UniProtKB/TrEMBL annotation:
<dbReference type="Pfam" id="PF13417">
    <property type="entry name" value="GST_N_3"/>
</dbReference>
<dbReference type="InterPro" id="IPR036282">
    <property type="entry name" value="Glutathione-S-Trfase_C_sf"/>
</dbReference>
<feature type="domain" description="GST N-terminal">
    <location>
        <begin position="8"/>
        <end position="87"/>
    </location>
</feature>
<protein>
    <recommendedName>
        <fullName>Glutathione S-transferase</fullName>
    </recommendedName>
</protein>
<dbReference type="InterPro" id="IPR040079">
    <property type="entry name" value="Glutathione_S-Trfase"/>
</dbReference>
<dbReference type="InterPro" id="IPR004045">
    <property type="entry name" value="Glutathione_S-Trfase_N"/>
</dbReference>
<dbReference type="InterPro" id="IPR010987">
    <property type="entry name" value="Glutathione-S-Trfase_C-like"/>
</dbReference>
<dbReference type="GO" id="GO:0005737">
    <property type="term" value="C:cytoplasm"/>
</dbReference>
<feature type="domain" description="GST C-terminal">
    <location>
        <begin position="90"/>
        <end position="211"/>
    </location>
</feature>
<dbReference type="InterPro" id="IPR050983">
    <property type="entry name" value="GST_Omega/HSP26"/>
</dbReference>
<dbReference type="InterPro" id="IPR036249">
    <property type="entry name" value="Thioredoxin-like_sf"/>
</dbReference>
<dbReference type="Pfam" id="PF13410">
    <property type="entry name" value="GST_C_2"/>
</dbReference>
Amino acid sequence: MEPSTLGALPVLYSFRRCPYAIRARMALLQAGLVVELREVVLRDKPQAMLDASPKGTVPVLQLPGGQVIDESLGIMRWALAQNDPQEWLGQLEDPMQQQLLSVNDGPFKQALDAYKYPERHPQLLAEGHRTQGEMLLISVLEQRLDQHAFLAGVSPGFVDVAIFPFVRQWAAVDAGWFESCQWPAVRQWLQHWLRSPAFLGVMPKYPAWKPGQSPERFPAPTIA
Ligand SMILES: N[C@@H](CCC(=O)N[C@@H](CS)C(=O)NCC(=O)O)C(=O)O
């Protein structure tokens, strides 16, 4: 393992706009943890990252002892196992929350990719893929958010952070359509997250990491 030059900090390989990496960083922030952040260029992944996790997806968290966690939900769980100030991990025992996560990460993510890149998924027009996303997840979120401000209940929770970055992408595919769509509670919830310190705190830009460069700390020192 390549030692972190920020002492014994975990190393996070990340990509700023990736929804999986966003939720991992949000959980690290929620847990109050500090890591060395290595911003990855996806078309030119660093060898050190591929050595740690050959499957080549971000985020990847490498702990000082050598353990590697290369699934975003695993990184979220690990972070909150260190420190869980609002007891988010307990929420995962709720089957409804697990169901939301698996729909988001499975069929909804597939519909999202097809909606973003309809030319790669010509079995439907973009609008057809969008309707699939609405039926699979957005309508379910709307129902829930009509009852309380967050998916987890009256306060934000694990599922909110885990799902919001994907809905952010979905809304951005056709922002004009989203602004006038029939999902007002989802729109309000998304607005909350886009303006939240939790999201803004994980979105500062980092230069692409190169071996030997001086290490970058996450959260950025000014907001820690
Ligand atoms: N199941 C993984 C998925 C991560 C993932 O697919 N990340 C994308 C970026 S958003 C990626 O690294 N893709 C590899 C590539 O584009 O080369 C997780 O939850 O961490």
